Amino acid sequence: MTDEKIALVTGANKGIGFAVARRLGERGIVVIVGAREETRGKQAADALAADGIAATTLRLDVRDPACVAEAAAEIERRYGRLDILVNNAGTAGSFTGPPSAASAADLREVYETNVFGVVTVTGAMLPLLRRSKAGRIVNLSSHTASLALTSDPGSPLAGVNMIAYQSSKTALNALTLAYAKELRGTSVKVNAALPGVVATDINHHRGRRTPAEGAAVVVRLALLEESGPSGVCLADEGPIPW
Q1: Which of 128, 164, 183, 235 is 20 to 30 A from 99 in CA distance terms?
Q2: What pLDDT score does 209 carry?
Q3: Residues catalogued as catalytic
Q4: How confident is the model at residue 65 (pLDDT cuts 50, 70, 90)?
């Protein structure tokens, strides 16, 4: 069993996930690039390795429980534990209409990755995280998930109304709190990170921030000291109301 920290980042072959993997790897952490497509995952891991980062890849489709179980078994075989899980994989889905026009299928398309995928991956990886001296789970959320912010008429987010994406991230916030409550008193901390409006595929690269900028708060939570919080929703500017 290696003494180095082991981190798994889902959806790490591009965007914020790749930037998180790079930042963690630059700190001497062994990074597992989780990717739905094995070829793209290998390309990302090879790019990191070319820069001196200890990176490897695993095929990981968060929507496929069998694939996730296989990935967990492989991590156990290779390392015997997991120290950091970053649930980064996410989607905005294809629906862009008003809430009244959305169907259950439109929401299910997004929830399969953003909510159910997180449940599947976390459940599979938690036994490995419990073996860590300082297990950390970081879920990628959004300012638009905050009911307090989006219901405030004076908030810049008051006019945002993406029913599938926003509600999935609000559900993710609830999951974060639920896991944090269960794991209170253990070595595992669970928090939500808000990277801001980052230019990625999910918004057709119209975001104001770079993936590296968005990754900063994720890495901060992934490397929390023992005295750090659990069950918070954190952005660069500080804690955000659920």
Answers
A1: 235
A2: 86
A3: 165, 169
A4: very high
